[in-house]
Amino acid sequence: MAHLKQYFELQGLSTNQVFVWIDIFCVNLHRDTPTGSADLVLTNELIASSRKVLLFLDSEGVAFSRTWVLYEAWQASLSERHDKLVVVPTSWAWQDLVFPYIAMDIASSHAWQDVDRLLMLREFQKAVETSSVAKIKEAMLLGTKRELQRTDVTVTGGQPLRMVYTGTAYGLLLFLKGRYTEAEEVLSGLQHKMEKFGGLNNGDDTEMLFHLALIAREKGSRNKSEAYLLACIRDSRSEGVREDLYLEAMLMYAQCLYDNEQYTKGELLCRKLLEMTDQYSDMLTEKARLKFRARGRVQLSALSLGQKLVKEVEERAEETLRDVRHNKEASTELLAASCYKILSE
Fold first, then answer.
1. Measured distance CA(72)–CA(54) in Å, rounded
2. C-alpha dist (Å) from residue 2 to 6, 8, 9, 56, 93
3. DSSP run (H or E) holding 334
4. Of 314, 341, 339, which is closest to residue 325 (Cα–Cα)?
5. Is residue 171 a contact partner of residue 186, using CB atoms and an 8 Å limit?
6. Residue 200: how many CB atoms within 10 A of its CB?
7. Is 207 in contact with 245 (CB distance < 8 Å)?
8. I need a surface site. Which of 84, 126, 288, 289 has the fewest CB within 10 A?
9. Contact partners, residue 239, CB within 8 Å, separation at least 6
10. What is the superkingdom listed in this entry's lineage (predicted)?
């Protein structure tokens, strides 16, 4: 709800000036009883008559795997208006959204009730399009692009921060689609435009540096990515910058050091990261703290492997595996797979 309120405030609207239909409150989405076709028809009608559909994208991309979310996004994509569906990210961590976006699939999506899921799948099967997912992705991109065009303060005036957030959302969708050069141009353009308004605040500037580092890495521009990361790590100590962003930038830079065979420097950075993770225990969720610790140990194992320190590799990888098995908060299949890969090498 905080993100919804912020969205309307940036639009220059107070909450008593807008009417919002929120599916979880207006449609029977509870586990114990199925929704039924009547609610589905009502949902279709409301989406068709609404001015805009906002998709608030969670930090782990769970929305991309939910049948109801995909169905409502698809209904919005059927509109003749190309600005109907707008994505509003709620997290800076673009890297965590890549796999959920790529893996987006209607047939394997989930709903609380199998009856509801089957009902929506039948509706998808009636579609003329060969790929409803492709249509959803295109609608998200076009809708967010139109939103950015309307918020460009150098053309339309208005609130600069609104342009930054909308531009970042558009940059994210370009990044997820693999259109890295366009994503870089959008973010660099935002930086240039914001110079006329005194620049970005510390938090937004550091997040943008991190996003540019991600893009440069995917483009294969290693030196550029490292430069952005170093700037990001430096600026992360400024007021208003998230602690988890600082730790993520450190992990990503440690990977760069590994790639450059600077193993000793990378190990020192990882050890500092583990210390900082404990220092930030009051500022991080337990899940985030445990994951950063596990990922830091995995990176340390990789650095030991690069130095051919076999005993250290085994000890660090096996220690991480024990933590992953016993701490559900830290447990992910990718972390376990990384450990097994290191051990096998």
1. 10
2. 6, 10, 11, 11, 18
3. helix 333-344
4. 339
5. yes
6. 19
7. yes
8. 126
9. 202
10. Eukaryota
Check: CB of residue 253 under 8 Å from CB of residue 223: no
Q: How far is CA 108 from the centre of its chain?
A: 20
> Judging by beta carbons within 10 Å of its beta carbon (0-12, 13-18, 19+), is residue 29 exposed, middle or buried?
middle
One-letter amino acid for residue 170 of the chain = Y
pLDDT tens digits, residue range 60-84? Answer: 999 999 999 999 999 999 988 888 9
Quick: pLDDT tens for 268-277. 999 999 999 9
The structure tokens 């994503």 sit at 183
Q: Using the predicted structure, report yes or no on whether residue 266 has a pLDDT greater than 80.
A: yes
Q: At 72, is the secondary structure helix, strand, or coil? A: helix
Structure tokens at 285: 């969720």
What 213-216 contacts at long range (C-beta under 8 Å, 24+ apart), as own/partner pairs, is 213/249, 213/252, 214/94, 214/95, 214/175, 214/252, 215/175, 215/180, 215/183, 215/184, 215/187, 216/184
Give the chain's domains with CATH numbers: 2-144 (no CATH), 242-345 (1.25.40.10)
Closest CA to 187 of 166, 203, 218, 201: 166
- Measured between alpha carbons, how far is 120 from 40 in angstroms, rounded to an integer? 8
The distance in angstroms from the start CA to the end CA of the chain is 47
Tell me which residue has tokens 């295109």: 138
Q: What average pLDDT does range 121-134 have in this prediction?
A: 82
Say whether pLDDT at 155 is over 60: no
Q: From the CB of residue 156, how many other CB atoms can be counted at a distance below 10 Å?
A: 10
